[in-house]
Amino acid sequence: MAVTETRETFVGTSVKRREDASFLTGRATFIDNLTLPGTVYMAVVRCPYPHARIASVNLDAARAAEGVVAAFSGADLAEDWKGSLPCAWAVTEDIKMPPHFPLAVEEARHQGDGVAVVIAESRALAKDAAELVEVDYEALDATADVERALEDGAPLVHADLGTNECYVWKLETDGVQAALDAADVVVTRRYVQPRLIPNAMEPRGVLAQVGPTGEATIWSSTQVPHILRFALQIVLGIPEAKIRVIAPDVGGGFGSKLDVYAEEALVIALATRLGRPVKWTEERSENYVATIHGRDTVHELTFAATKDGKITVVKSEAKCAMGAYLQLVTPGIPLLGAWIYNGPYDIPNYSVTFTGVFTHTTPTDAYRGAGRPEATYVLERTMDALAAELGIDPIELRRRNFITEYPAELASGLTIDSGDYHASLDRLLELLDLDSIRSEQTARREGGDTKLLGVGFSTYNEMCGLAPSRILGAIRYAVGGWDSATIRVQPLGSVQVVTGTSPHGQGHETSWSQIVGDQLGVALADIEVLHGDTAVSQLGMDTYGSRSLAVGGVALVHASEKIVDKARQIVSHQLEVSADDLEFADGTFRVKGSPEREMTIQAAAFQAHSAHNLPDGMEPGLEATATYDPPNFSWPGGAHAAVVEVDTETGDTRLVRYVAVDDVGAAVNPMIVEGQVHGGITQGIAAALWEEAVYDEDANLLTTTMTTYLVPTAAELPSFETDLTETRSPTNPLGVKGVGETGTIASAPAVINAVVDALSHLGVTDMQMPATPERVWRAIQEVEA
Amino acid sequence: MIPAPFDYEVAESAEHAIALLGEREDARLLAGGHSLLPAMKLRLARPSVLVDIGRLAELSYVRDEGEHVAIGALTRHRDVHHDPLLQVHCPVVSFAAGTIGDPQVRHRGTIGGTLAYGDPASDLPAVMLALDAELVVRGQGGERTVPASEFFTGVFQTAIAPAEMLVEVRVPKRAAAGWSYTKMTRRAQDWATVAVAAIVERTNGAVGKASIGLTNMGATPLRASAAEDALAGGATIAEAAALIPDGADPSTDYAASADFRRHLAKVLGRRALEEAVAR
Lengths: 785, 279
What we know:
Chain A is α+β, with helices and mostly antiparallel strands. In chain A, strands 3-5-1-12-9-10-11 form a 7-stranded mixed sheet, sandwiched between helices. Chain A has a 5-stranded mixed sheet with strand order 7-15-14-13-8.
């Protein structure tokens, strides 16, 4: 629905995305569209083995090949690195943080680990010449299995550490054991959550240019230009002030571009050495081994409960794959879920332990939801297991444990500011018509139908809006969680908004215009939102963790308030009335009681710039910057239901309905919210039914292309039925919470609960993700045997 | 993403294409390109020259030839799917063509390309085998006709000699027969995990004689001979379906284990036969 400018507010309206015109007409600017005069192209020679000693690297044939400008081994470039690729989250004091340089020198530790680079006059020539690099590898033992990696005698990823255990992190309240001992019922379940491979539509890409005095500009397909900038100083030693990072249109991230990658440092080092711009565009098959992966955890989750279903203890022990190296926030990903192992439930005793484990695999890091899908999955699966154990309806069991009073202080130490989990569940059940699903389910079972129905639920919450800087500091995250906004009202009244967030599909240009349009009373068409360039947006903490609106969006409000305050002083001076006697609405200041005496904010902006008649001591111009550090996380929640049809003869499992009711606080742009919910749900369903990175026993990745790693398409999915319930966050003036990850967090357990529900009468009690036809069929065979 | 270097030639006629093929041993024909080009981009295929036959309009046709329908090798899957002649006389062919890949693949991919590629997971090879189709192959010495049962010789291997090209597919008219192509895929556009083509002659509403082709149950498309023989001997569909995987040697891969494929062949085969009898 298009908006009209006569609406009372822009916020709350489904304004069409201003970003889409360029995408839909092929005029977006992605890295691969950018070329500078004299650009040369980098290809990376990657280790084909999961683990290998690099005996020698012979670059002679590559250097002699057509169009080749240069070729370097890891050893050749070692002197260029002033520091390791950074890991910003040392989660414990004694965490093992092995160095990680852009190219491996003596030992490669996962398939795809870079060992040499070739630079040529075209991308194709670089690729051809890279094939001519002769690397003498001595293959070494390897493992991709987190449990095996912790066994005695397991192949070590970093031999000098003497172990594959990266860290053990624990959060436990007093009295957990006593509560376990006193419980009527204790249920423990084990869950394997497979490794996932992010597939952004635009793979990664970087282009770097280094000037004669060492000033470096890098264009990167990144979510985090600001973080990348200071990380590059750490790796390259170039003062941050001389580095400019530009993130042009970025074709998807999902966390995979929330990182600092080897190639980003390499192109700058090479541009410095060669005096020419250097560009690299990731191939899709490189993306599968050289861009971070997600998930890959083995959990044991325990609930203790009274016989009437009041949960008294949640205890989680998880082994979490780090991969071969620690990327930007690799060790901290499990921690992003550490405080929501109680979910929307009031559970007084709390114990969460994570063991970070090195394996000979591509590093893991943030992938949509980051730690929270893992937590929610084991929690919501175990809710159903406990319901079955107690003979209580799973919906009723959830209701008996919901948090209902806010602010809710959690056993884990955080505080949920607002929510209404019953309201979301009530609305979900209205939309679902559970009775008719249950009667159809029964009819099919009794009729001997080979296509069985199952319905599964997931009631969830999450913590996002990352994050209060003090809390981040307390949990040893190296950077802050604030964000910034700068608003400049131009002399003739149009408005430039500079944001510290870095959108890559989220539609900030549209939503931010709506917020500022309301605050300043200016037309959307007069607002331009600038982002993604550290020379334009100096202050920012970028876009990830559903943080942009709840942090950067709030900064817009505070910057707008500063603008209005200054304009008010100008108007007060010019109209010769007290500032207190001015009302501001719809972009116009009016004198109380004499509304014919008025001045628009545009007129005030002109006065601010002409500076002919400003109050004494006032600086010209109408510009304000605000940084906002949130006092709390934000806490979306909701209730989801999946209905599946399982073919008992083939195991083929199809989703027939998916209903989601989310509470994301106030929705600035409901259409964008709905888009985020749909995409998020799809990514969770993908994990539940299709996607899985599969390794063989020697840690070779078997799912190396989109042919074997199954990203679902619209053809596999029903239209989702979505709705919102709204409890405004009292923490921020917009009342917003965040929506980027809710769907992914909630959906996988709903789908798997539905699969188990479909087969529960046969005796099936568990199903590993993804529920492939073969897994489903074998589960049926096992209970029938 | 970026193929190894190769030369590119445009064929002006079938004869020209055959002549170009004869010039280099590792030359490959380029038709729709939806199998070959991805393999080249992954550098799994490295022909030194591509002979583009995409402009040979004379090889795109569906013609009534009396006892059979002749399909030109360059006929796109989309056109096979929608062809009225095939829909009447060989409906299993047009149906199966409509299940290949996705719309982009069906608009570019050709019947000759998918048969000549020899992928046992592709749909039309098993259909042609079940129909006892004939394939017309042309070389510098002229044309020869190869029965489908002799055409598929191994994984990505066919009876086409290096300097030959497939020019036509001859499909017997089977308008009266019941038919089914029952396929299971993980995603809509995927290759079949397993699929079964069934063509049945009905006797008093039951299966009289059946031909059963299997997709992705071995190195080549296969006929389920044991099941066919059992049906000819009066077995029920359920009895015959249990024999469908006999003699098959399916692979284990991302989509299924060999054991599961054998099981699926029985289930899908039973469903295919039931559907064919009813259709």
